[in-house]
Amino acid sequence: MKYKDNNKNRKTKAFTIIESLVYIFLTTVILLEGIDIFVSMYKNYIEITQLTIKYNNYQNFFINLDNIISEGGLQKIIVDKNYVTFSNDNKSNNLDKTIKSYDGKILVKYTRNNVTQTINTMLEDIDRLEIRKKGNLIYFRIYDKDGKEFIRCI
Question: Keywords, A to Z (predicted)?
Answer without folding.
Answer: Membrane, Transmembrane, Transmembrane helix
